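Lab meeting minutes (informal)
Scribe: AK
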Amino acid sequence: MHRHEKKIDNFEYIDFFFKVEYWEGEPKNNEPDKADHIKWFDLNSLPTNIIPHIKASIMCYKNKLIFSEFS
């Protein structure tokens, strides 16, 4: 995803997302100052407060889009 954050810091980002088919163990929150916790969710039952560009990337995955732009 090519992302331009004009509202926050006027920076451009390139985000990469990967599909994980197998996971062993529990995810760990390595940035507790940015997130309260880490939790697995079903793609069809996501929380309402998901970060907008992450939500857009999940929609792209569901629609089989391999590249997108977000601003």
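Next up, CB showed the second protein from the same session:
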Amino acid sequence: MKKLKFIVILSLLFVAGNDLYAQTGELNRFSNEELGTVNTIHLFPNPAVEVLKVRITNSTLSSPKLVVHNIIGSEVEVEINQISGEEFSLEIEDLAPGYYLVAIRDEESHFGETYKFVKR
């Protein structure tokens, strides 16, 4: 009886072939499209002395808002100028030297990220 069960199982495995193994099957889970980076954020120069520039490339943001916080989370008053559609200038010359955070938010696309910079 055990031999018969073994032969049946072995024959089923032989007939099924490679269809039982996910590694060898023809699963099309991912397309061949290239994955692009969206909303690439660059802060420069970092560390900064007078002006920090923020560049947002490959943007899907409609109206990004920038807010500067000190390292403990309190909002800091700085002048923010939009140079172009994807570049901002932050006047940080009046800030004390140290670490700060730039929060970038966009309500429409639900984007929100925070980046660290150093003021010298």
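CB comment: The mean pLDDT is 85.
No objections, moving on.
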